[in-house]
Design goal:
It comes from Cirrhinus mrigala. This is WW domain containing adaptor with coiled-coil. This protein is mostly helical. The chain has a 3-stranded antiparallel beta sheet with strand order 1-2-3, with no helix packed on it. The longest helix has 29 residues.
Length: about 100
Amino acid sequence: MRTKLPDSSSYFFHLQKLEGTWERPQGFVQNSTFLTREEIQAVCSSVTAAHSRDVQWKANEPLVLQLQARMRGFLLRQKLSERLHFLNTQLPAVITIQ
Protein backbone atom coordinates (compact mmCIF):
# COMPACT_ATOMS: atom_id res chain seq x y z
CA MET A 1 0.00 0.00 0.00
CA ARG A 2 1.33 3.46 -0.88
CA THR A 3 0.62 6.48 1.30
CA LYS A 4 1.17 10.00 -0.01
CA LEU A 5 2.53 12.38 2.58
CA PRO A 6 1.89 16.15 2.75
CA ASP A 7 5.39 16.87 1.37
CA SER A 8 4.39 14.77 -1.72
CA SER A 9 6.73 11.91 -0.82
CA SER A 10 5.46 8.33 -0.74
CA TYR A 11 5.69 5.68 1.95
CA PHE A 12 5.19 2.04 0.98
CA PHE A 13 3.78 -0.42 3.51
CA HIS A 14 3.40 -4.18 3.01
CA LEU A 15 0.15 -5.11 4.77
CA GLN A 16 0.88 -8.83 5.14
CA LYS A 17 4.51 -8.56 6.27
CA LEU A 18 3.86 -5.33 8.21
CA GLU A 19 7.04 -3.82 6.76
CA GLY A 20 7.45 -0.31 5.45
CA THR A 21 9.93 1.47 3.20
CA TRP A 22 10.43 4.85 1.58
CA GLU A 23 11.61 3.28 -1.69
CA ARG A 24 9.23 1.68 -4.16
CA PRO A 25 9.44 -2.13 -3.77
CA GLN A 26 10.05 -4.31 -6.80
CA GLY A 27 6.76 -5.59 -8.26
CA PHE A 28 4.71 -3.04 -6.34
CA VAL A 29 1.02 -2.89 -7.33
CA GLN A 30 -1.17 -0.22 -5.76
CA ASN A 31 -3.95 -1.79 -3.69
CA SER A 32 -6.82 0.67 -3.86
CA THR A 33 -9.25 -1.34 -1.74
CA PHE A 34 -8.39 0.71 1.35
CA LEU A 35 -9.94 4.07 2.11
CA THR A 36 -7.87 7.20 2.49
CA ARG A 37 -8.19 9.47 5.49
CA GLU A 38 -10.08 12.01 3.37
CA GLU A 39 -12.57 9.38 2.17
CA ILE A 40 -13.19 8.19 5.73
CA GLN A 41 -13.59 11.78 6.92
CA ALA A 42 -16.05 12.55 4.10
CA VAL A 43 -18.19 9.50 4.94
CA CYS A 44 -18.14 10.30 8.67
CA SER A 45 -19.12 13.91 7.96
CA SER A 46 -22.01 12.96 5.69
CA VAL A 47 -23.33 10.34 8.15
CA THR A 48 -23.06 12.80 11.03
CA ALA A 49 -24.89 15.48 9.05
CA ALA A 50 -27.66 13.05 8.08
CA HIS A 51 -28.03 11.95 11.70
CA SER A 52 -28.16 15.57 12.89
CA ARG A 53 -30.89 16.38 10.35
CA ASP A 54 -32.86 13.31 11.43
CA VAL A 55 -32.60 14.25 15.12
CA GLN A 56 -33.59 17.84 14.33
CA TRP A 57 -36.69 16.73 12.37
CA LYS A 58 -37.71 14.31 15.13
CA ALA A 59 -37.36 17.06 17.74
CA ASN A 60 -39.60 19.38 15.68
CA GLU A 61 -42.10 16.71 14.61
CA PRO A 62 -44.93 17.93 16.91
CA LEU A 63 -44.46 21.47 15.62
CA VAL A 64 -44.52 20.30 12.00
CA LEU A 65 -47.70 18.27 12.64
CA GLN A 66 -49.38 21.24 14.30
CA LEU A 67 -48.41 23.50 11.39
CA GLN A 68 -49.73 20.93 8.92
CA ALA A 69 -53.06 20.65 10.80
CA ARG A 70 -53.48 24.43 10.91
CA MET A 71 -52.76 24.73 7.19
CA ARG A 72 -55.29 22.01 6.35
CA GLY A 73 -57.88 23.76 8.55
CA PHE A 74 -57.19 27.08 6.83
CA LEU A 75 -57.57 25.55 3.37
CA LEU A 76 -60.82 23.80 4.38
CA ARG A 77 -62.28 27.03 5.82
CA GLN A 78 -61.29 28.82 2.62
CA LYS A 79 -63.10 26.24 0.45
CA LEU A 80 -66.19 26.40 2.68
CA SER A 81 -66.17 30.19 2.47
CA GLU A 82 -65.98 30.04 -1.33
CA ARG A 83 -68.86 27.54 -1.41
CA LEU A 84 -70.98 29.71 0.91
CA HIS A 85 -70.26 32.77 -1.23
CA PHE A 86 -71.29 30.83 -4.36
CA LEU A 87 -74.56 29.69 -2.73
CA ASN A 88 -75.36 33.21 -1.50
CA THR A 89 -74.76 34.73 -4.94
CA GLN A 90 -76.97 32.06 -6.56
CA LEU A 91 -79.86 32.58 -4.10
CA PRO A 92 -82.00 34.63 -6.53
CA ALA A 93 -81.66 31.91 -9.19
CA VAL A 94 -82.62 29.23 -6.65
CA ILE A 95 -85.72 31.18 -5.58
CA THR A 96 -86.73 31.66 -9.21
CA ILE A 97 -86.38 27.94 -9.96
CA GLN A 98 -88.43 26.94 -6.92
